[in-house]
Amino acid sequence: MSNNSISTYKFKPFEFTVLKENLGPLQRSVVRPMRRVVGNDAIFLFNEFKDQTNDAPGQRVPSPMHQIWKFSLDLGEWKVINCRNVPQELVTNYNIVTLSGNIILMYGSIGVPSGGICRNRMYLGNLANEYKENGMIFVDLKECGDFLLPLYILGVVMDGKYIYAIGNTSGNKNEMEVHRFDLSTKKFELLYKSVREGIVVETRYQHEVVFYKRKIYIFAGQGDGDHPAAAWNFFYDFSKIHMFDVDTKQWQLLSAKPDHRVPEPGYPINRCFLACVQCPEKANLVYICGGLDYYLPLKDFWRIDFDTLQWEKLTQWIMHRPVYLHLTAITPTGRMYCFGGIVSENDIDYEARATNTLSSGWIKIPKLKDICWEAMIYYFKEQMFKSTDECLKKIGIPQEYYERIIEARRIR
């Protein structure tokens, strides 16, 4: 297999390049991220939109549609996985979508804080069923014992069989309670009640949540009217981080260390709508990028080490444009993907627009085999995906990559 008509492959770490600018017109709607990347070969996003149907006599009315988008990292193409048994009450961007392995959990509400009714139902789907005749069907976990009150959850993180919910709101008032849902017993447990004495955790929303070594860290976020010195547009800074110990069920307020190599204060600019992602191989490392300050989208990269609480500005990294409300994920090999968001064409332009661009960049130097595979995809992608199974085996493609090609073929 050879191809002399394309330019030479170059390995480019720490630089984001655009992979996909387009998606179908029906897919330009509400998109929420799954919280994890599955393996090194695919990214999953949850999409919801309203298709126009003729359900009502004489007129076309919106009908809820639900999809999982699966992007093959090797093939570079999207596949739509249609979902069944997702109730209309979850047709809103006010609910939680979480992915762990092949299991998708949805916990939702509707119309909050826009005057609707909160819901507290939980639904489970299994991506292993995507190729079955009936497709992917969500199961209503009706017998879940003691559910939370019907409130919208502000932050969720998973660890093994547990789902931790940090903060909730009725749409009018925020609380910083901590609940834990046990997937084996299907019951919620209250770990911390907001009115308890001790460390005061100010109510907030749009905060980031990270689980590391039996502890939950929350940082950033937007303050609400309950904060004594804050208006609704108050952004919490990055110099202090609240940590909740799930064993002692207590909060601590930790002081983070600034990056002294950059101008003061050495912390990320106060912001909301940023992207936050945890490194799969080194869970102590958490990356943030983009976001919105009080006026403008941002494009900077920062990293914090939860073993040392040291912030570091990654000045060598380049995002192609400022962005907020975007989605990010990291593969186990160390490649970060950024999808969608609201973008600005430059650093001083107040005008912004929505985008469905998918971009990608290495956040570390990967293993040589991963660089070699990226080069193989660059030069020979079409030939490999069109070759027979026997041909792929004869040319000596390693088994793990052979299986990735076989899986990616099913998208087409």
Key attributes of the depicted protein:
repeat; 5-stranded antiparallel sheet; 412 residues; mainly beta
Stretches where pLDDT is under 50 for at least 5 consecutive residues are 25-30, 50-65, 109-118, 227-232
- Residues in helix, %: under 10%
Total helical segments: 3
Secondary structure tally: strands: 29
Strand content: 35-45%
Which geometry do the CA atoms define? Answer: globular
What is the rounded Rg? 22 Å
Largest sheet: 5 strands, antiparallel
Query: Structural class per helix/strand content?
Result: mainly beta
Terminus-to-terminus distance = 21 Å
> Quick check: average pLDDT?
76
Layout of SSEs?
Blueprint: E1 17-20, E2 30-33, E3 42-56, E4 59-72, E5 77-84, E6 95-100, E7 103-108, E8 122-126, E9 136-137, E10 139-140, E11 152-153, E12 156-159, E13 162-169, E14 174-182, E15 187-192, E16 204-205, E17 208-212, E18 215-219, E19 222-223, E20 240-245, E21 250-255, E22 275-278, E23 285-289, E24 301-305, E25 310-313, E26 323-324, E27 327-330, E28 335-343, E29 353-362, H1 368-386, H2 389-394, H3 399-409
Parallel strand pairs: 5-9
Antiparallel strand pairs: 1-29, 2-3, 3-4, 4-5, 6-7, 7-8, 8-10, 11-13, 12-13, 13-14, 14-15, 16-19, 17-18, 18-20, 20-21, 22-23, 23-24, 24-25, 26-28, 27-28, 28-29
